[in-house]
Amino acid sequence: MNGLTHVYCGDGKGKTTAAIGLGIRACGSGKRVLMVQFLKGNTSGERNVLRELKNFRVLPAPENIKFTFQMTKRELEETAVLCGEQFCRAVSAVNGGECDVLILDEVFGAVNCNLLDNRMLVDLIKNKPQNLELVLTGRDPKPEVLELADYVSEIRKIKHPYDRGIPARRGIEF
Q: What is the pLDDT of residue 64?
């Protein structure tokens, strides 16, 4: 079976949830899933469930990570190093045949904040193993990525509680 490239993008809620759903479906069919998270703290509730799945592995971002607009220059530099390391771990896992499905969660955020080079992402898409299913999430993917993707699903925000000052709620938004 040929693996394809999926993009879940847009300003709406549910990009990561869609990627995890696809990953759980794949896991339930015996596929090995690796999810690498960028720019997300590791407090999201789904991790508790995903830990229980034998073939679903998560490489989280650091435990406490600020929004990039809150970071100092030094913190941005450190975060860029971490993003590069996460991406290299993902590529190493792919090259080592460790996963059938690779989810790069919020990878477009890392690219758009200049914490990860888009050329590396494009290179992965172009040179991925034929059978690898690649899932990419985040806002504002670059045109080259959209062109290379097989699936592009835009999740558009029409209304969100955050716009009314309601903060993220445990178990719903994280």
A: 64
